[in-house]
């Protein structure tokens, strides 16, 4: 089969980027299939929906802020307070600040739903977002210039993984349903193709990159995981799961430690230095349902997994195979919805995840809102819920920027930027 030609980059005039407004949602901005998810029950109304559960959000118990962060820092310096207690004090102050978070920027640049996002590692107001049609947008919402837009191939081009190149942040890696894992720049050039299938029967579903070890790892839809060096040389290609590999993640502190998640209802942990075959995993962590994601915590000491039904798990290092901390949470899988994935906050031991209310979920309440939920990663306690009545769709992806003060969310066609009210006014 002849290689498929990639479209050129363009500064598109059609990209709709605007601050939060009260405009009505255009029918074009939501997929027909997704609109079915927003149908309310008999006799319900938007006014009743919002009013009914705003009281529930207001009643959520949020820990009071630490009385004096400066005092806590001073006590830590004097040796009167341990680091964990100081960290807990800082975390409580951050959780309390979430009450002032609002949507300050919103974009709807794609004609198909957004499927992946990645924050720039050094620019706190810049992120890249990929779509189901293969489009990619680089958006610096801190300036008025139009975003850089790379047009995809349309149907069959879905961006399944997106990572900035840690060795050159003007470049990025992608995995896609087009059947490739590649390195590109924001001028639309393909710099290197790491893996490629010549048929639409096989494609790549996930990727991760290590700057220290200079390796790229990617997983496909039939269970294979491929490890390559930054020069593109394949180190190994093994079938590690029975079905699609939905997520691959390298440990940020020990990048020889790899986690792979699959729809075969397992998450496996591997030592890249000792991989010899499909049975050479260190641990296999069985789940009740297919798994969407497995993320190591920023300190590498814990592993967060999201299944396709109603469970978030937190596993601890050195005891990966011990019973995990379980967090019941509704986020069921739907074919025409970008899979919901929980993520870690980059600085605090907090978990952020979108809620997809399920009438069969044990604690479901009538007219439950589609909130963004923030959990304590240690206790599993729900700490806060973010909600905007003008952006009330199902939010699939949530990622805080490396600074930890700005949240990007993906909701169907929309990209939402959340920030503290006073910070947002300055942007």
TrEMBL record:
PANTHER family: DAMAGE-SPECIFIC DNA BINDING PROTEIN 2, DNA DAMAGE-BINDING PROTEIN 2. Pathway: Protein modification; protein ubiquitination. Residues 1-40 are annotated as: Disordered. Belongs to the WD repeat DDB2/WDR76 family. It comes from the Eukaryota. Transmembrane segments: none annotated. Pfam families: WD40. The keyword Nucleus applies. It is found in: Chromosome; Nucleus. Its main location: nucleus. PROSITE patterns: WD_REPEATS_1 (PS00678), WD_REPEATS_2 (PS50082), WD_REPEATS_REGION (PS50294). The keyword Phosphoprotein applies. One of its GO terms (cellular component) is nucleoplasm. WD repeats lie at residues 238-280. This is DNA damage-binding protein 2. One of its GO terms (molecular function) is protein-containing complex binding. It comes from Rhinolophus ferrumequinum (Greater horseshoe bat). GO terms for biological process: nucleotide-excision repair; protein autoubiquitination; protein polyubiquitination; pyrimidine dimer repair; UV-damage excision repair. Keywords: Acetylation, Chromosome, DNA damage, DNA repair, DNA-binding, Nucleus, Phosphoprotein, Repeat, Ubl conjugation, Ubl conjugation pathway, WD repeat. InterPro entries: DDB2, WD40/YVTN_repeat-like_dom_sf, WD40_repeat_CS, WD40_repeat_dom_sf, WD40_rpt. Residues 1-13, 26-36 have a biased composition (Basic and acidic residues).
């Amino acid at each position: 089969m002849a290689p498929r030609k990639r479209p050129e980059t363009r500064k598109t005039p059609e990209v709709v980027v605007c601050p939060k407004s009260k405009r009505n949602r255009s029918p074009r901005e939501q997929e027909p299939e997704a609109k079915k998810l927003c149908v309310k029950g008999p006799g319900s109304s938007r006014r009743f929906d919002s009013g009914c559960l705003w009281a529930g959000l207001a009643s959520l118990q949020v820990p009071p802020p630490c009385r004096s962060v400066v005092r806590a820092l001073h006590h830590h310096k004097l040796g009167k307070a341990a680091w964990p207690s100081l960290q807990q004090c800082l975390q409580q102050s951050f959780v309390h600040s979430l009450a002032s978070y609002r949507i300050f920027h919103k974009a709807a640049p794609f004609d198909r739903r957004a499927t992946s996002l990645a924050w720039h590692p050094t620019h706190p107001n810049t992120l890249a977002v990929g779509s189901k049609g293969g489009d990619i947008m680089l958006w610096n919402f801190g300036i008025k210039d139009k975003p850089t837009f790379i047009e995809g191939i349309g149907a069959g081009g879905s961006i399944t993984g997106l990572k900035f190149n840690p060795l050159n942040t003007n470049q990025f890696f992608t995995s896609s349903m087009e059947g490739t894992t590649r390195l590109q720049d924001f001028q639309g050039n393909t710099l290197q193709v790491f893996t490629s299938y010549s048929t639409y029967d096989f494609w790549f579903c996930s990727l991760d990159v290590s700057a220290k070890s200079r390796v790229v790892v990617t997983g496909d839809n039939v269970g294979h995981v491929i490890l390559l060096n930054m020069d593109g040389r394949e180190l190994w290609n093994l079938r590690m799961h029975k079905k699609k590999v939905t997520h691959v993640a390298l440990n940020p502190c020990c990048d020889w430690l790899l986690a792979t998640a699959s729809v075969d209802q397992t998450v496996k942990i591997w030592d890249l230095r000792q991989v010899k075959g499909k049975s050479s995993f260190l641990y296999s962590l069985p789940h009740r349902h297919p798994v969407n994601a497995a993320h190591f915590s920023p300190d590498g000491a814990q592993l967060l997994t999201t299944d396709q039904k109603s469970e978030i798990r937190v596993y601890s290092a050195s005891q990966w195979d011990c019973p995990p901390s379980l967090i019941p949470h509704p986020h069921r899988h739907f074919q025409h919805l970008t899979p919901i994935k929980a993520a870690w906050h980059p600085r605090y031991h907090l978990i952020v995840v979108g809620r997809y209310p399920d009438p069969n979920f044990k604690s479901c309440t009538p007219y439950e809102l589609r909130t963004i939920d923030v959990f304590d990663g240690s206790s599993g306690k729900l700490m806060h819920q973010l909600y905007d009545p003008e952006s009330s769709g199902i939010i699939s992806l949530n990622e805080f920027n490396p600074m930890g003060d700005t949240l990007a969310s993906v909701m169907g066609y929309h990209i939402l930027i959340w920030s503290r009210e006073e910070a947002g006014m300055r942007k």
